[in-house]
Automatic annotation (TrEMBL):
Protein name per UniProt: CRISPR system Cms endoribonuclease Csm3
InterPro entries named in the record: CRISPR-assoc_RAMP_Csm3, CRISPR_Csm3_endoribonuclease, RAMP_III_fam
A Pfam short name: RAMPs
Origin species: Dictyoglomus thermophilum (strain ATCC 35947 / DSM 3960 / H-6-12)
Keywords in alphabetical order: Antiviral defense, Endonuclease, Hydrolase, Nuclease, RNA-binding
Family of this protein: Belongs to the CRISPR-associated Csm3 family.
Domain called CRISPR type III-associated protein: residue spans: 14-200
Domain of life from the UniProt record: Bacteria
Entry GO MF terms: endonuclease activity; hydrolase activity; RNA binding
Any Gene Ontology biological process: defense response to virus
């Protein structure tokens, strides 16, 4: 295993442009409750699991590279940039997962400021959406179901990082991850995406680097860039340039 040389942190906001449904457990659903609840913390507040973000970004990158493992499993070649970022799904070609994506928690203050007037109680953070299937002959609705969603406009705090090791192609790894984030913005997160759910946008991003030496010295990160949105075309090139300068010292 090569020596660890440092870590890039990418942090910011995830803004919902449409309602989000990431399914939670039905075990706690009460009689008469929603058919399809969203995942929540133990305090009853919706959040986005890091596994949902990581899995979706990886899937989009593999599709873009025409990676087609057997039976729909994630790639396990252990050599491509997707495996180097997210880890290989093959015991014979194991690789480190360089990417960490934390759970993204709801910005409760922002939510109350934007939606407080629409909800009766402070602890409500979701909306209900009823859907059904149209009977093609009768033209009537049937099989109604009620979905729970986090409403469009809600904001979650995003936190991720990429670890680097000697010999890594830093530029390729960073560009691949940002490419995946950009693809997610044009796809969807969670369930029912083809019916309008899960359109998200990354906002107010900040980039920090922490070389290995910092862990036994000041334990501080250095800010190397900011970006209001991923549409900033120059941010990746500038970010990689700064990142390489810090890591080679």
């Amino acid at each position: 295993m090569n020596k660890f040389i440092g870590r890039l942190f990418i942090e910011g906001d995830i803004r919902l442009l449409t309602g989000l449904h990431i399914g939670g457990s039905r075990e706690t659903v009460e009689i008469g409750g929603l058919d399809n609840p969203v995942i929540k913390t133990i305090e009853g507040i919706p959040y986005i699991p890091g596994s949902s973000l990581k899995g979706k970004i990886r899937c989009l990158l593999e599709r873009a590279r025409n990676i087609n493992p057997k039976e729909g499993e994630p790639c396990g070649c252990g050599k491509c940039e997707v495996c180097l970022l997210f880890g290989s799904h093959n015991d014979k070609t194991k690789t480190l997962s360089r990417v960490i994506i934390r759970d993204s928690f709801l910005d409760q203050e922002d939510f109350k400021n934007n939606f407080g007037k629409y909800f009766d109680r402070d602890i409500e953070y979701t909306e209900e959406k009823t859907e059904n299937i149209i009977d093609r002959i009768a033209g009537t609705a049937r099989y109604p179901r009620t979905m729970e969603r986090v409403p469009a406009g809600a904001k979650f705090k995003f936190s991720s990082s990429i670890a680097f090791y000697e010999g890594d192609d830093v530029e390729k790894l960073v560009k691949t991850f940002v490419e995946g984030m950009r693809m997610l913005e044009d796809d969807y997160l969670g369930g029912s995406g083809t019916r309008g759910y899960g359109h998200i946008k990354f906002e107010n991003l900040s980039f920090y680097v922490k070389p290995y030496e910092s862990y036994y010295k000041d334990n501080q990160r250095k800010e190397i860039g900011k970006s209001v949105a991923l549409t900033d075309k120059d941010i990746v090139e500038e970010l990689v340039k700064e990142l390489k300068e810090v890591l080679k010292k």
